[in-house]
Design brief:
elongated, 5 helices
Length: 174
């Protein structure tokens, strides 16, 4: 019977270790690796831009600012999403760990965050007023997270539904 207890304790220990948040030092290291990768990318493309590194909400956060960078964002952020994923892969290759870093270029994500927060507030009010659930248009994971966080702050509930790339948020009245 004690063998079973030991196995359970080891499994719980492994799960706790696997889910432990990364230290600030580890996240700063990810940011440095990502910045080096992005600087190389900017050099290859012969583009100017400064890279700001920070740690926000338990993840490395980088922003490329200055220069003419709109084409690195794309019409709806699709190029930015691809560059972010390539940067995450570069960090993972270097560290051996999966990275959740966030990348912003030319203030696109910051502006989108404001738009989505306002949308979530408006739709939350509509859900409260009508007493009906509200389905939003499909969004990427970054956008859905902003909606969920705002809805939670407002005291309502929401959940994602559907399959990517058509995954969307449903906001429920209180």
């Amino acid at each position: 019977m004690s063998d079973v207890t030991e196995v359970v304790e080891v499994e719980e220990s492994v799960e706790a270790t696997a889910k432990a948040p990364k230290s600030v030092a580890k996240l700063e290291e990810e940011g440095d690796i990502a910045a080096d990768y992005l600087e190389g990318l900017l050099d290859i493309a012969d583009l100017d831009g400064d890279i700001d590194i920070d740690v926000e909400n338990g993840r490395a956060s980088l922003a490329i600012v200055g220069g003419k960078l709109k084409h690195l964002v794309g019409a709806e952020g699709e190029v930015l999403d691809s560059i972010q994923e390539l940067t995450r892969l570069a960090v993972q290759t270097s560290t051996g760990d999966r990275s959740r870093l966030m990348l912003d270029i030319d203030g696109f994500r910051a502006g989108r965050r404001k738009e989505l927060t306002a949308l979530a507030e408006k739709m939350a009010e509509q859900a409260k007023t009508t007493g009906s659930s509200i389905k939003l248009d499909p969004m990427n994971a970054f956008e859905r997270k902003i909606i969920h966080d705002t809805i939670q702050t407002l005291g309502l509930t929401s959940e994602s539904d559907g399959e990517d790339p058509n995954r969307f948020v449903v906001i429920y009245p209180a």
